[in-house]
Target: Contactin associated protein-like 5a
Amino acid sequence: NPNAQLNNALLFLSDKADSHLCSHYHCHSDLSLSAPSCSELFSHSGLRGAGGWSPQVTDRQPWLQLDLRDRMEVTAVATQGRYGGSDWVSGYLLLFSDTGRAWKQYRQEDGVGRFVGNVNADGVVHHKLSHSIRSRFLRFVPLDWNPSGWVGLRVEVYGCAYKSYVADFDGRSSLLYRFNQKSMSTVKDVISLSFKSRQAEGVLLHGEGQRGDYITLELHRGRLALYLNLDDTRLRFSSGRVAVTLSSLLDDQHWHSVLIERFNKQVNLTVDTHTQHFRTKGEGDSLEVDYELSFGGIPLPGKPGTFLRKNFHGCIENLYYNGINIIDLAKRRKPQIYSGNVTFSCSEPQLVSTTFLSSSSSFLSLPATLSASGGFAVRFQFRTWNPDGLLLSTRLALEPQRLELQISNSRLRLTHHMSAQQKEEVSTGEGQQVNDGLWHSASLSSRGLQVTMTLDNEPSSTMELGDHMEAGDSLYFGGCPSSSSSDSYCENPTLAFQGCMRLFSINSQPMDLNLVHQGRLGDYKELQFDTCGIHDRCLPNFCEHGGQCSQSWSHFYCDCSGTGYTGATCHNSIYEASCEAYRLTGSSSGLFSIDPDGSGPLGPTQVYCNMTENKVWTVVIHNSTDPVRVQGSTLQKPYIMKFNYSASPEQLMALVARSEQCQQEVVYSCRKSRLFNTWDGSPLSWWVDQGGERRTYWGGFLPGVQQCSCSLEENCMDMNYFCNCDADTDSWANDTGVLSYKEHLPVSEIVIGDTNRTGSEALYRIGPLRCYGDKSVWNAASFYQESSYLHFPTLQAELSADISFYFKTSAPSGVFLENVGLKDFIRVELSSPSVVTFSFDVGNGLVDLAVKSHVPLNDRQWHYVRAERSVKEASLQVDQLPLRFLEAPSEGHLRLRLNSQLFVGGTAARQRGFLGCIRTLTINGVTFNLEERAKMTPGVSAGCPGHCSGSSSLCHNSGRCIEKNSGYVCDCSQSAYGGPSCKEEVSVSFNRESSVTYTFQEPFSVMQNRSFQASSVYRGNSRARENMAFIFMTTQSPAMLLTVSTFSQQYIAVILARNGSLQIWYHLHVDRRPDVFSPRPSSLADGHLHRIRIHREGKDVYLQVSNGYIYKRCENFDEEVMQAGSKGFIGCLSSVQFNHMAPLKAALLNRGSSLVSVRGHLVESNCGAPADSTTSHPLSGKCCYQAAKTNKDNVSLHDSAVIGGVVSAVIFITLCVVVVMTRFLYQHRQARRDTSIKEKEHQTNLEIACRREAAYQAEPAYRTECHLHDSHSSTLRDNREYYI
Model:
């Protein structure tokens, strides 16, 4: 009998322990087992005494419950195994309750509910609680125990007495605190209270003044909202008062603490352990409230300027307003307090919840009691985060008919199954979503030939039946038993219910779930009684950079659309960090968004990247680029101009710090206007640097010299002065210079003070900020002693860390970097010649991610490594090998706690050190200066030897530089370009009816992107991502540019629509319409070159056309893909890239291979050259759809049967290229130049950029982001075909 055993486990605080209660001060002092007389609340059998608690083996859910006789403040617990045996508990939950009925699970700092227990029967495991518990009852629920023994437990609880002043509000009552004067005006307020609410709505505090001030604290939808305004008449008369909201699920009938601290306009709002800082609205600094403050409600609804709200229903304790104990005054019936219907003891309602734990196996079976009126009526309440789940299923008297009430797509749906094929459904309205974490009431009733479904207080939905309906013997709530059960009619439609239920009523008879728990009524599985285990996983919000958090019962998800970031927590920037990085990807001059600190807190900014010179210049403009004439200014009333740049000051500082060199031109012309006083040399005009400091030099890089450029160059018009303007002549003079001391740039302000004399004037223009180089790209260190390392400050990466770097070595193993804490650590190492391992532990056990290369990595060539860890997942990328990815456990520690130095190239133990070179080490957007630290470290040298270690780009367009004994070569195998330095386009034009098919054969592991070494606490997952890039030129529309298709009718299509606009189609769910977005309506079928880059990660799609970006939402179109496919493509395609493959180039280089099928005459072309001949092809072409080496004519994109039949046992990718040439002009391909190794070292201008500069500059730059339907199932299946 479980109930009897529960009673046996009910323990009481002994009289001896009563004397051990301590003061509030001692309650928070260090707790020690050596001083039990100060802090020990309860000792069951004594941690060092004999005995202990052990439940019967037949108990389904054993627990140990303690009754402390009154509410106490508990600060620590300790456990020990059963004396003299092999029984102990290795993991447990801690629950608390004021009544012994409604329980709440205690969660530690990271939201972890599990406590680590004992490993033997004698050891004591002590846990100091991160936040104390104020409660009467405690319950220890064993989760794991000694597998060779049984549950055994001795416990001690530590804390002190807790005193509180309590008031009970019945939903119609309130407390009024009247001021001694007409109004109360304060510049500082401190309001604190604790509350326990029975409903999700209710006013806790309200006050207002006639001038427009107000303060309101209320519960709204289970969240706490604070409305605060200081002397803002606009908000007084407006209907949209803005609230600061915090926390959630506050209607759980448990105590929550609130603290409001205000000083002037600065406010801190704290709810439990969460704090939000904000600044109030309004003009004033004081809060002026007239006559009174009301607590628990607004007693006069007709009061002018107030807004009606529900009164609070529940209990409030320890209510203090600026040090005044309001409840104490009310209990003593002081005249300044009016207490209407308020009592001073907290009544405890018996609303007991049950938690359905499993989305696959939880269920509750209750008998269907007889109804005197016939039919049946069921009522219950539920709350959940999940958008799907079965709520109720019952068999009807007329078999095989049954009724199902379920949550489907966040709405309530009632289904009447008349047979296996025939059913009828009704649903609630679109706006009635029930997976919002709030309590909802659902009822189902039948009368006559109708069954009625009602949700909350909304209008009912009715379904007509063909016959009178009577329920079967049992009602199944939350799910169905396993199929082996005799009641096999009950089937979970999608998922079982995961959430909480309460207040079950069948035919107007309430159901006592205690009887269910005791086995005396119904049946159940995977339930937790007397508690609602709902948990808000979006509090705190772990989505970075403004990402929006949503959640299910066991996971949270981040919507990164519109943020400029991607990844599970919106951590990674979708932009490159610099113009230099864009050039390395093959981009040419244009507008680009850069993110100088990567995944750091700074957002992206738009700059112009000028890549047409020997250097790559980053250009940042400001608000005053035209020449400005200045007259009438004096030193006392100077002319002042502040410059606002297209980037924030923080972004500018990051950009300047990252650059090798920066400069800014100052054009300054003058007539009878001096820069310096000729008598004492004091400045009459100056400029202000990025740090706000006044600067008086007007050229060069020597900030300590008060001179102009002419003095530095020794060519001033009057050599008696350092500036031409100081000659003070009636004719125009010029002191133009270039500021190049980058620590002072950019110019933030200019001040001119000598233009008030007759004929005096100045003309100035401050140019844009121009920077070149990226210091981080080639910042390297060489390690030549195994015991050597570089050390840096402790890694700040509690919640997220992304680590990226390049390495080259000949050693078989070595640690790249390591940082450790007391227990936690993080490490990246070369564990064997072909394996890179990323290891860490945040308290959930060791996690290892490993990437194994098919070739050795200790080949003295550069290899790229990127490791990332967040609260959601961990990943490891090495070169172009498949990403290794592991998802974090939904219940576990989140924070990586480190306390030692970060070691690079070795470990603190000076063992397993790295021998070789590391460069471009970046962690969370911060690039580490390895060279500077290497200069003062023995065994390490700055830089790295070799031809491929310099800042000059020897290999372009993602080509890889390969070291040779006497030079280098460029590996262009993973680049869409060819030639000695990967700069030559691979462009193709086709004559009439020509086509080429190339089949890529890859192993299954490459296609799957799954980790081959998964930890027990992390489960493997597949990350769907694609990168596509190509260049095209055409005058035809519609046109098919590229299609990626699977054999299950999934596809990605890039087309030109009928009007020539670009469209990207993603059809990842065969049962839904495709996601389609068009970045702009203008035509790209204009005969100009256009560069397309597409990146997809999960549900986020990012598009770059030529050089810039805009955002646009997805749309749906019909038949566009089929029309474009039927027209094929007429034009020129070049430099086609898909992920790490260059399919067009591979097809051309492998003619004659069994993997290549060529139809018609294939002609290499040059997309960038004008025409000198005319060729006419009157027939339009078809896009070919081929699989392997079998040609299938006239096969539609949706004909999955034909394509699927070709590959039944082979996993491969097919790429089909079709371009048909008609009425299009080309010029003969220019002769290729032979380029030597030495020439490659000095040639940095891209030929492609030179040929296309005019076309790129004439085209408006834009970028599109598309958000696909489903973030977790938008994965293309493994067998793919690629069509171009």
